[in-house]
Amino acid sequence: MNQRVTVEFPVSEGGEHLVERMHALARGDGNFVLDNSPFYAFGISCGDVFSASPSEDGGLVFSEVVSRGGHSTYRVKLPAGRKHEDFLAHWLVLEKLGCTYEGSSANPERLYSIDVPAGADVFEIYRLLEEGEREKAWFFEEGYYFKPVSD
Q1: pTM score, two decimals?
Q2: All domains of the chain, ordered by start, with CATH?
Q3: Among 10, 43, 78, 92, fewest CB within 10 Å belongs to which?
Q4: 28-67: pLDDT as tens digits
């Protein structure tokens, strides 16, 4: 089926209850596959399968993760005075490791949601994110870490 839908994900920020809207693909079995990398929601990443329930206005609201797609999510916020070009100067090494990003300038600080695909070296990526933070290129936080099952 794979119909593209928009789903609301409740989030709390600074004591406020907000909603992040993200795209997902309907699987035809009542579940959905997240097709975005979250900027604010925690505990879910691109590629995860989740269930949703109808909202009062006829939309969909996230319920729970059904299965993991193997991706991790990190968020990077640029400090005051930093620009997109500053982000790009540190980005290339992450891109070479398979990461992709979505950017938002909705807040005063630029915000990036970084998708770490299944199979990528998440420990090296985390180290590079820490390095960027030490160099004051950005601040980062973990939205969701996918821990692979050990063999």
Answers
A1: 0.90
A2: 3-67 (no CATH), 72-144 (3.30.70.260)
A3: 92
A4: 899 999 999 999 999 999 999 999 999 888 889 999 999 9
